[in-house]
Amino acid sequence: MKSRIGIGIIGFGTVGSGVVKLLRDNGDELRRRLGMPIDLIKVADLDTRRDRGVTLPSSVLTDDANEVLTHPDVDVVVELIGGLEPAKQYILTAMARGKHVVTANKALLAASGEDLFAAAATHGVDFEFEGSVGGGIPIVRALKEGLSANRIESIYGIINGTSNFILTKMTDERKPFAEVLAEAQRAGYAEADPTSDIEGLDSANKLAILVVLAFGTPVNLKEIYTEGITGVTPLDIEFAREFGYRIKLLAIAKAQQGAIEARVHPTMIPEDYLLAQVGGVFNAIYVVGDYLGQALFYGRGAGDQPTASAVVSDVIEIGRNIRTGVVGRVPPAAYPAEGRRHLRLLAMDEITSLYYLRFAALDHPGVLSTIAGVLGKYNISISSVIQKGRKAGGGVPVVMMTHRARERDVRQALAEIDGMSSVLDKTVLIRVEGEGD
């Protein structure tokens, strides 16, 4: 039996330095939990001089990732550089050398997860990625193990802290998008280029991972409908408030009679729902299982400490397997190869939802009834209407909430309505989940 676990880290940025600090601060506790020490053998980063707030011996820190990949005392390689390449090649090389791998790289998992799962099986190594979704929230292990007795029926996730911070500020402080985005960048919650966060791409990567684990199917990231928050306005937030809703960027997955819905977009949810109360940079993932019922996983979704917590928990999991001579006890994709199956992801125009629709309509007699008539023509029924202000001959916002309708029908109806001379701008559409759903 091994007397210690040796790890090597590739990437000494925010999360990498957090992992090193955690190993230093909680070394005794980790030894107690694992039954043997975790030794930090090598840390590789292109920049070996920048101050990370933690000092490493010169014998440990290197600018050559190959020193991690080839070191005979490294049992577990921790990949924390992010991106697609060279991260993927580092992981495949580590596996080919018989080394177990931990990563927090959601973009790589979403794009190439199947290749990595297959390589882990081929080379007989463990592959863990708890830190890839939800920071320190243990949702990956929950889906792999804690909820494995259930058929997962649906998942609703607030899984991007930047977007949630922006929407929270816009809602609570009634500030416009651009102002709050600038504030998020100053506070370090948003990158200089925030595209991945505010356009929903980061959430889509994470949703792809959740779908793989929850439903046992490979996922093509390009098939996940993705819409960001740049179109959400203070006006729509105020109308949502009047209807008793809050707007969140939700990642949604639902099992639908042998197929899967997987979509990311701004969503109105009732303000008394727990998900609606998740504010700031916090994340939450709401899971519904057939026997469990409802469960909510909540916590800090990013940052050095939460993600380091998840990464080191993966190292401990692998260390326990090494101690007992077990590999692949839990498949990285949650299902063994023979238990996985290809499920179709529904195209967006196939899904059904409740809808919030905001029209910029001329305040003329008959305009409202004409709009309602077009909606009715496409089998879309209205549950409530708000019309603000009166501007004789001018445009006013008209808001309608619909009963459940098919996306294809809604899109066709709006194409016709937006072509009317009495409608002055493109209709705003926000999907609604919750009451009446």
Query: Rg from C-alpha positions?
Result: 24 Å
Give the strand content: 15-25%
**Number of strand elements:** 18
- Span between N and C termini? 55 Å
Mean pLDDT: 95
Low confidence ranges? none
Enumerate how many helices there are, as a single number.
Answer: 14
Structural class: alpha/beta
Largest sheet: 12 strands, mixed
Q: Give the helix proportion (percent range).
A: 25-40%
Shape: elongated
SSE blueprint and pairings:
Layout: E1 5-10, H1 14-25, H2 27-34, E2 38-44, E3 61-62, H3 65-70, E4 76-79, H4 87-96, E5 100-103, H5 106-123, E6 127-128, H6 139-146, E7 152-158, H7 161-173, H8 177-187, H9 195-198, H10 201-215, E8 225-226, H11 234-243, E9 245-256, E10 259-270, E11 282-289, E12 293-300, H12 304-324, E13 344-345, E14 352-362, H13 367-377, E15 382-387, E16 395-402, E17 405-406, H14 407-418, E18 428-432
